[in-house]
């Protein structure tokens, strides 16, 4: 029984050390009205505004305050929403194939989330949009427009469900702040409805000191297990 207990304690300690090395994970995704359920103080996607020319996005760009609408129940959406998200837009009646007609141009949205300040995070972000979208993290472009053509690659029938032309799912590798802003610019064309959808996950990369702690912990546990096994007469 005691040997079984020793064996069970070792994996638990290993898991604890691994958790220390990889401390924080942030889920990202689009939601309509209300608070996001993703944790890390994620906010629901908010609408910033419309421009007829591509907007300039910086780290000091205003945060979104306008309401967005969840298109989950809109008949005939472009494609199914990505896991952990929903299609959203500036109008509750938007959606593929008979929705509201939004003016051609650029629609900007933002969402914020918390992270460990100064830590490096890595992960991926998947994006769908009608017609196509670009993504900024704290004012830095991390994913460009797939193709600025009417009913572009992000739209149904144009190469969707993701903006494959611009490399989505987009890899993220960035040093984050305590509070971070993700900005989505949706380019709408061809006189139809507008909407965006994104989902992803980023995790805190282990610091060298954490990896050293993990390595020395593993060596120490292995040494203790060896000494105890040797003392009890277990052959290796």
Any overview of this molecule?
This protein is α+β, with helices and mostly antiparallel strands and 236 residues long. The protein has one domain (24-205): Jelly Rolls (Sandwich). The chain is built from two helices and eleven strands. A five-stranded antiparallel β-sheet has the order 2-5-10-7-8, with no helix packed on it. A four-stranded antiparallel β-sheet has the order 1-11-6-9, with no helix packed on it. Helix 1 packs antiparallel against helix 2 (208-231). The longest helix is centred in the last third of the chain and has 24 residues, at 208-231. The protein starts with a helix and ends in a 5-residue tail after the last helix.
Detail the topology: elements first, then pairings:
Layout: H1 2-21, E1 25-29, E2 46-51, E3 69-70, E4 88-89, E5 105-114, E6 120-130, E7 132-137, E8 140-143, E9 170-175, E10 179-188, E11 195-204, H2 208-231
Antiparallel strand pairs: 1-11, 2-5, 3-4, 5-10, 6-9, 6-11, 7-8, 7-10
Helix pairs in contact: 1-2
Number of strands: 11
**Helix/sheet category:** alpha+beta
User: Could you tell me the mean pLDDT?
Assistant: 75
- State the oligomer: single chain
Helical residue percent? 10-25%
Stretches where pLDDT is under 50 for at least 5 consecutive residues are 1-20, 156-161, 209-215
Shape: elongated
Percent range for β-strand residues = 25-35%
CATH architecture field: Sandwich
The end-to-end distance, rounded to whole angstroms, is 20 Å
The major pleated sheet works out as: 5 strands, antiparallel
Task: List the keywords.
Jelly Rolls; single chain; 236 residues; five-stranded antiparallel beta sheet
């Amino acid at each position: 029984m005691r040997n079984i207990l020793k064996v069970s304690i070792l994996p638990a300690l290993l898991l604890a050390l691994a958790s220390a090395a990889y401390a924080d994970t942030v889920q990202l995704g689009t939601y309509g009205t209300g608070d996001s359920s993703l944790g890390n103080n994620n906010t629901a996607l908010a609408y910033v505004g419309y421009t007829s020319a591509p907007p300039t996005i910086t780290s000091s760009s205003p945060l979104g305050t306008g309401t967005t609408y969840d298109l989950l129940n809109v008949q005939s959406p472009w494609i199914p929403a990505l896991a952990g998200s929903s299609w959203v837009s500036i109008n509750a009646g938007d959606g593929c194939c008979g929705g509201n007609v939004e003016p051609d141009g650029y629609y900007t949205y933002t969402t914020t989330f918390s992270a460990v300040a100064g830590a490096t995070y890595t992960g991926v972000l998947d994006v769908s949009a009608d017609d196509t979208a670009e993504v900024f993290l704290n004012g830095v472009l991390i994913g460009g427009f797939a193709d600025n053509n009417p009913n572009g690659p992000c739209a149904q029938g144009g190469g969707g469900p993701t903006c494959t032309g611009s490399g989505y799912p987009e890899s993220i590798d960035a040093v984050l702040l305590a509070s971070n802003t993700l900005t989505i610019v949706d380019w709408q064309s061809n006189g139809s409805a507008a909407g965006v959808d994104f989902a992803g996950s980023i995790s805190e990369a282990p610091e060298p000191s954490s990896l050293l702690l993990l390595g020395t912990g593993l060596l120490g546990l292995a040494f203790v297990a060896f000494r105890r096994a040797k003392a009890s007469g277990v052959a290796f």
